[in-house]
Protein 1
Amino acid sequence: MDSFLLACTDAGFAGSVLVLKDGSAVLDKGYGLRDREQGLPNEPSTVHAIGSITKQFTAACILKLQEQGKLKVTDAMSAYLPDVPADKSGITLHHLLTHSAGFPGAIGDDNEPIDGGDFTRLALATPLEFAPGTGYGYSNVGYSLLGIIVERVSGMPYERFLYDELLAPAGLVRTGYRIPEWSKEQLAIGYRKDGTRWGTMLDHPTVNGAPGWHLRANGGLLSSTHDMAAWVDALRTNEILGPTSTQAMFAPHVLEGEGADSHYGYGWALFTTPRGTRLITHNGGNGVQFADVLWYADEDAVVVLMSNANQRGMQDMAWELGRMVFDSTYVAHVPEPPKPLAGIPEGPVGDRMKALSAIIGAPADEARLKEWFTENFGPGFLNDVPMERHLEVFKQLQADIGPNRIDQVQRVNPEEYTMQLVSERDQRRWQVMLQLRPSDARIGGLGFDALD
């Protein structure tokens, strides 16, 4: 395992990893640097952002309130939120917990400092993608609404209720948004794929000491590998939730999409291993930081991986470690480091890069931009981000960059490339992260950063 992780570190990985088997640590180390500017290494105690793993904490808050007799997961959300329109009146807390309410994946930028009232009004005005209870659509929106309900029902800020009722009793003193009051030296600095500094969650806009509600309660919590292992143990032993609640949390409520081999519980994804045993898991990331928790519930094994330098192609590292736990002969796949290219690739990949450069360099009206999005975006990327946000971003790119040329193309992995756009207007350089679907090179993700 250590040799595999060291090879991954050579390919760009940085983070902290804990592997437990039968209650003992098989591996407990940090890899790479948590702060490149200061030369500080990642350690087992380093605090990382855990992304959507946050959802299981929100689910636990709801179950704790149910144990306290203050709500039921079968309640309609309209019992706790004002002015719920008719098309959403049938949405229950269970629907929100299982991503079966019909809300889209997101309705705004994670770092927008939006408060709970404005977020609720925006969410309730957003059209549903399917009728509640008739499908599965992974949604950050639903979990943020659950966090707002936690506040309304408990009369406490979300993080305060989480900390007082669940984290502190379980001994998780290094998990939260602000309450732990970590020193800067404890936090892992996030680095983008091109090596530029992203910072920590605490460096980005907050509302009343925590992220805005596009992120709060669905993502963004900070934690450590040891705290996450302690959390799993607290759930396993019913230390913080009773058996009925934990049974509900780990029940296979909804299939994760048509033809999926996994179900969603309450804040956890549920798989069956090739050995016929239960794997309870969830990951989270923001394109910079990534975390994964795998709990082999019937085999007393836990893998926790947290990274502050997430590279595409490394999301399976924890799963590779899990395979090693149960098969000493298994040879893990080590991701390849980014590969500089001599120029723009031939074929669909290069054509998509040229199309992106051209649309940024030739201002177009909204109708043309929408047409371009339909022609060049994959359906997931097109629909997971509100059209208004797509338009806003591209209009700003047209204003900031304008006519340009493509320079320094790099292949990060089979699905991701980076390239630099040089503005003809002022010669400023812009780094572009471009995720392309292997089947047709349609754009599945984009990121832009000014380099000069």
Protein 2
Amino acid sequence: MTRIFPLITLICLVFSSYSQQVTITGSAIGAEGKTIRIIAWGDLITFTEERVAEAEIDTMGNFSMTFDLPSTTFIAVAIDLHRLELLMQPGQTYKMKLAPINYTDNLEVNPFILSQNLKIELINPDKNELNILINGYNNKYNQFLLDHFNALYLERKKNYLDTFRIQVNSGYTGIDQPYFQDFIRYKTAGLEQIAHAKNQYDLARSYFIDQPILYNNVEYMQFFNNFFTKYLKATSNILRKIDLIPIIKGAAPYPNLMKTLAADSVLRNEDLRELVLLKGLYEYFYANPELQDPIIAILKTISQESPWEGNRLVAADMVAKVTKLRRGTPAPEFSLMGRKKDQFHSLKDFRGKPVVINFWTTFCQGCLAEMELQVPLYEKYKEQVEFISICADRYWIKMNYFALTKPEYAWTLLHYSDDTDLLVDYEVRTYPLYVVIDREGNIFQAPAPHPSEGLKQVILELIH
């Protein structure tokens, strides 16, 4: 048996018309009765998550699932908030054993702070299995960087890099794994950046110009993200001298932007130019609030009209990402347990009435202070507005006992019911979090101010 440790937290899955099945069987002792999920990312710029498959772990701790996979990709295996990552290839069968952990030892439920990394063993893998190859290369890479970082970064000794490249090439001759060869190539390219072995244009000529875009290769996209970060604003010697804001706000912005970016010889390939434009627009969106509406319009145009499927996917993910929880978009649905175990409430049950939701825990002092201030708001507006408090304590009974001591919290109390996806959907990064939803079930404001910060004004704006 060979132990495989988590490799990387990013994954890219570009769907195509041709897919092959992947079968996973294994055991996860201690997670009996829980759900094991396979998660992918739509692209490696926005990191939009997509659930590929899931299965229940039986009473013996065993699980099995089969799903379609169109290309070699990193997947995340998740149980509750715990994850591991590894590469999977279409048409393969994987047998694995997850190392036991205490799945209930998680006092604070926050999906953005994963409490533990899962570990797995792949049972009887081939010696040239892709995870083994990449694990071996990563060990060599990390040791080389540890030993020679100063020589590369400060002293710029390029001969060290040449020696490493020769060693790697000789160590992996005869390996027929295109994904692995591309992985090595673009990870080693990162060393060239560190050592300043080539200028910007020569790096682009070696790795981007007239080269295919490898949307689903994690090291290609890592190198792409590093190389083109702030490229439109600061890195490009040509484009940083051009004010792109009037073009973004102007008529026919997409073709005019593509025409303007063509002045940079690094971006002479149109598919690469468009992808760099997408990354730049994504950066502009968060840095320039006044550009958000026109940028959304441009992204929608690219998602529908781009000649390149990979770019259409990235653009569509960007639209979903930047419009998530935006005013007027549908609020994520839920069905959660209330004060009684046989009593469930869905968001749609409250359609026709504005809703104020707050996410809280019994051990969050700030949450409890805000809920005390919520009491008079509830008393004053309960006929016009529905108040819902969703408790993220691990156990329902703890919420219920607490509620019995607080009869003044007469509004709807719900328990998150192990639905960590709901916390992710509402981007619950800290507690408390308030969200206001309109009568049609659409987001009105997210996040909304706390009662101590002006929630009353938002309620008045919504009901009048």
Protein 3
Amino acid sequence: MRTICFYFQIHQPFRLKRYRFFDIGMDHYYYDDYANEDIIRRIAERCYLPANQTILQMIKETKGKFKVAFSISGIALEQLELYAPEVIDSFKELAQTGCVEFLAETFAHSLACLEEDSDEFELQVKMHAKKIQSLFGYKPTSFRNTELIYSDDIGRRVSAMGFKGMITEGAKHVLGWKSPNYVYSCASDPRLKLLLKNYKLSDDITFRFSDWSWDQFPLTADKLINWISACPKEEDVFNLFMNYETFGELQSKETGIFEFLKAIPRMAEKADINFETPATLFSKRKPIDRIDVPYPISWADEERDTSAWLGNELQRSAFNILYSIRDKVRLCTDRKILQDWYYLQTSDHFYYMSTKHFSDGAVHNHFSPYETPFEAFTNYMNVLSDFMIRVREKFPEGVDVEELNSLMKTIDAQGKIIAQLEQEKNDTSITPSEAKAKKGKVECKAQKVTKEKKSTAKKGKSTASSPKSKKSIA
């Protein structure tokens, strides 16, 4: 039986205010609260609330046969909690139907997966999954990376985190003659199953639905279902992945986009087509082949690669400078610094710096709050410069990365020992003598780790105060 898999992305960045060079060191608040609230409220009223109500109605009318998946970035969730909490409530109502899956992604909607020799990616994924579970009572088992970015290496890392499947782009230069309408597996770890976006059908809805110059205009539900039915009978999974803002924002209510969405289940039932979430497909379907993706792909622009965010020198410079202070940020306990760290990683900031032209450039300009990519770069780097000053105030320049890493490992080890002590304290299955012996061993380890921690901190302090260190700071 043929299946349609709907997945919707929900993400909005914390947009930066105009931050001048003279603000560096003086103003530590970076965000345009007015614009952020205004945009979230507008999209909530035009898209999130009416679309959620439409989908809830579709689930009830089909008695649970209609199913969808959402990926909501942690950054978007925080803004919805601040400015439109009723949207969170509407998603909770959808979650209670049992017909909605919530996918995991990076909390900051970041490009952390492209940062080598770092566990920032894994930390953000765990943070996001925890947020989803706390809000909706749902533990994600499927993964969707920022902008559908995927490669064999990323797939291996996602599988190592315990996810059963991942969704990504059905990029033509990767698929070649193959169709995206099957379940595939990761080349580097076959345990991870893959769903690939059918970008033609998805883009027909997202970008061409109200385009009068399109030769297939108007797009109706029965026309979409007929296109799916006309595909070779072996092709059985049609992945329609798109921004949720398609409904009511990119395609306004006046275009008939909500009526189109509501009609899809009725037309699909006539054609014997059902709906499933990614998790169900990953559990029921076997992959027909592996997909080799040696270099990262995404769902952006004609190239379907990462050039939308790291395609020019401005973007790469900003990216490299940001992640150069990652180890020091991770040692901070200052909640404001950690919050800014996540907000500054959001991929949108790098997207605004793109210098692409022609059709792709038009899309970039449509979403950017800046007049030029160079203005976006200058504003971001001014903010980043101030952020780096704040981070460096917490840690002396003389402490190098190796010493910081050593200190981080020591702190992590101490945390594990404390957790082990708590677990054994609550373990009633061991005798008092066994508990006493284990306690003695653990206390010895704790003392050793504490000595190492003090030694590392002392070394960092002495290095920072040495003449050599002062010279480097100067």
